[in-house]
């Protein structure tokens, strides 16, 4: 079972960073809250880590406040496959 399926289809702080980054909406959240993360020369080393694991390994460079903002922004994203009002078919 993937972290996304545990969360009902959304991204969490336990989702691998590369999975979040593969979705344009998730990528936007990462770029907003963690600028430079996806362009970091060492990205290939931590892309399979979750944001929680990265924060633990970051020696305080990823704060709990940053994680909280990121978690809130990820939770606000529509679930994959969910129809939004702008995508709803018009009769």
Would you kindly provide a written description of the structure presented here, covering whatever features stand out?
By secondary structure, the chain is mainly alpha-helical. The chain has one domain. The protein has six helices and no strands. The longest helix is centred in the last third of the chain and has 13 residues, at 64-76. It is globular and about 55 Å long. The N and C termini lie far apart (37 Å). Residues 1-8 have low confidence and may be disordered.
Protein topology:
Layout: H1 3-6, H2 17-22, H3 24-33, H4 43-46, H5 51-57, H6 64-76
Short summary of the structure?
The chain has 91 residues and is mostly helical. The protein is 48% helix and 0% strand. It has helices spanning 3-6, 17-22, 24-33, 43-46, 51-57, 64-76.
- Strand share of the residues? under 5%
Got a strand count? 0
> Cα-atom Rg, whole angstroms?
14 Å
Question: Poorly predicted ranges (pLDDT <50, ≥5 residues)?
Answer: 1-8
Proportion of residues in helical segments: 40-55%
Output mean pLDDT: 86
Distance between the terminal alpha carbons, to the nearest Å?
37 Å
Q: Which secondary-structure class do the elements indicate?
A: mainly alpha
H and E string: HHHHHH
Number of helical segments? 6
Largest sheet, described in full? Answer: none
Shape: globular
Number of domains: 1
Task: List key phrases describing it.
single chain, 91 residues, disordered N terminus, 0% strand, mainly alpha
